[in-house]
From TrEMBL:
Its main location: cytoplasm. It holds the Pfam family Guanylate_kin. This is Guanylate kinase. The keyword Glycoprotein does not apply. Its EC number is 2.7.4.8. The gene is gmk. SMART domains: GuKc. It comes from the Bacteria. Residues 5-183 form the Guanylate kinase-like domain. Belongs to the guanylate kinase family. It catalyses: GMP + ATP = GDP + ADP. One of its GO terms (molecular function) is GMP kinase activity.
Length: 206
């Protein structure tokens, strides 16, 4: 499918810092919107329906699958997660840039549908640091953390299918890398269209 807006897909093992990086990026970039996924996972402490996720029952999720309402969906850490067409279609068709925070399975499905999507994988600096971040976040029980650490080994092996890999050791450095990728993609896209106007907009020049 071909749409005018850029599509950025950010994946990472749980706890590597993808949500923190995307949140910081969105605060700096008013031309970027994040897609709100549907999930069957229960909300964590401060999470709100329609803000972090649309929280739905498994039956509701499966009905959406049957109705073809998802661009992609996957089972991750024992729960179902999906990107609805409604979450992104209107935005990218209107030329806005959208970022998806999804797992590697979803990322590869999106690349099939949108070959121009830019796939970015966030790595933690070490396994021990990943574990510490999950523990320090304080949102998940020991069993959930164990499961996510075990799944992280499988997930990290998928990084080779991505267009870019960022190591999130120092937060500000990783954020700089993420910003640079977004900026570079916009420039590339603008240049491809070979219009002076598009290049100037990407550079933020009036
Ligand atoms: N560079 C960093 N250095 C230290 N701590 C970090 C760094 N980046 C993120 N963190 C912290 O690590 C924890 C996990 O980050 P975050 O929730 O963003 O991970 P995530 O990849 O989005 O996980 P999930 O997929 O489970 O949502 C948070 O407490 C966050 O503040
Ligand atoms: N394939 C998809 N994966 C998704 C989507 N939304 C989130 N996720 C991924 O699930 C895990 C766990 O998230 P958590 O919020 O429970 O910690 C993480 O890797 C997310 O990126 C989605 O729509 N599709």
């Amino acid at each position: 499918m071909e749409y005018p807006g850029n599509l950025f897909v950010v994946a990472a093992p749980s706890g590597a810092g993808k949500s923190s990086l995307v949140k910081a990026l969105l605060e700096l970039d008013s031309h970027l919107a994040v897609s709100i996924s549907h999930t069957t996972r229960a909300p964590r402490g401060q999470e709100q329906n329609g803000r972090e996720y649309w929280f739905v029952s498994e039956a509701e999720f499966r009905q959406m699958v049957d109705r073809g309402e998802f661009f992609e969906w996957a089972e991750v850490h024992g729960n179902l997660y999906g990107t609805s067409r409604a979450a992104i279609e209107a935005r990218i068709a209107a030329g806005d840039d959208v970022v998806l925070e999804i797992d590697w399975q979803g990322a590869l499905q999106i690349k099939q549908l949108f070959p121009h999507a830019v796939l970015i994988f966030i790595l933690p600096p070490s396994w021990d640091e990943l574990l510490q971040r999950l523990k320090r976040r304080g949102e998940d029980g020991e069993d959930v953390i164990d499961r996510r650490m075990a799944n992280a080994r499988v997930e990290v092996a998928q990084a080779r299918h991505f267009d870019f890999v960022i190591i999130n050791a120092l937060f500000e450095t990783a954020l700089f890398d993420l910003k640079a990728i977004v900026h570079a993609q916009r420039l590339k896209y603008a240049a491809q269209r070979r219009t002076k106007k598009a290049v100037f907009e990407a550079l933020g020049i009036e």
